[in-house]
Amino acid sequence: MTSVRRFRFASIVASGVLLLTLAACSSSEQSTDDSQNTTQSSTTFSVGGINWAACPDTTPESLVQCGNLEVPFDYDNPDAGSFVLYIKRRQATVPSERIGSLLVNPGGPGFGGSSLADDAAYYFSESLLNRFDIIGWDPRGTGLTTPAVDCVDSFDEYVGLDSPPDTPEEKQALIDASQAFNDKCEENAGTILPYISTRASAADMNSIRLALGEEKITYFGFSYGSELGATWATMYPNTVRAAVLDGAVDPLSTSTEEGMAQAAGFEKQLSTFLAQCSKKPTCEFHNDGDAEGALDALLFDLDANPLVVSATRTPVTQGVLFTAVAQAMYSDYYWPQLSEALSAAQNGDGKGILQLYDDYYQRKEDGTYGNELEAFLAISCLDDPGATSTKDVDSHIEEFIAAAPRLGGNFAYGYSCALWPVKQAAKVTITGKGAGPIVVVGTTGDPATPLDSTRKMALGLEQGILIVVDANQHTGYGANNCVVKAVDDYLIKLIVPANETTCKG
Q: What pTM does this model have?
């Protein structure tokens, strides 16, 4: 049911809208004492209301409305500037049964979440839609929130290079591309780069709550949205009615450790894909029962002779293939597409591989891109840059390869954060103390947030409750009726499931 786009991304897919009424919220005051949060600033600032109106792409009778909310760059220094958050609301289908607002985030970091209000019928059960206003917003720096991170117009020259490098020259090309990309980000978005941390976005969630006029809110976060939700629950525990964190990372891991866990997770998922393909003669990439050997041979060939698909696009390099594989590993839904693309590449046709690569980077049919990649890097590097020099990056390469022999090298050579122009923001130590029971969902075949990492999120929360879903995909809600019922009962009735509940399809 659910797919994803990037390491820690949850997907945005189909939509559904119905009938709504117009409303406006009155202004409120936010202060440090509002939620007994010790991490808050002592500065008091005014939170304005949200004037809801019909969205440009909907009719006045639609259940989905649009609005904006101004929040400061810096909650400690409100005069530094401000973001205007873009927010969508899908009103509860059955107003008489309305419980309150359900804030939702699709992941990333870098994805805007406003479209989840449009896509709510795809993402969430009818029971949730009946009882909650679905509130999706584009976090600071993303989507239609202004200002947003916008660094470059085309990504091929920065991300289409051959990786992992085989020569000092190829390695230097990766470093130079990372530096050039960072320079463009600093040039075009430097004003906001220090202000788009997860901690700041969590403070924005509280501002949204205040603007909605609600004492407590309910939250559902996918993938990176789990990290955002856990940060908010830790900072504002008294404002948490209920929270679901689906596909979560280990809250105590560094970005380097998280990268290694992801490399191992993607490697495991790739091994499963190849083993299944080898066993099924109907698999396009069967190769007489040796899909594993065929992939290794294809990688070797592409390293020496990249496939040219178009004179205006990056050739299909080994690095491009790794990206395509990563895209397909988020869900076994994509495995037939990957099998076909790999088989075609064996015969000299790289179009299928390039399509998966483009899907990963959110390339549109007209050749343009959203700002997901830029925002992903900007937020990730601000939260935790990991290695702080190219030498430091290089020191971990062998560890990555040991964790993931096929994919580890490609994961290891990431220089962007090591060269990022903005120093790391203050992080919140995630505990969820005082927030009450928080439900954490993990899947057995999740490559991006492996089950072991998700279990550590549940263990790290004061009252973390883990649901394990038997599925080969990233994030678990919607994979089967068992997890939908357990989550819905918790969000609607506040019935807390048993810890380590297992849901099989």
A: 0.88
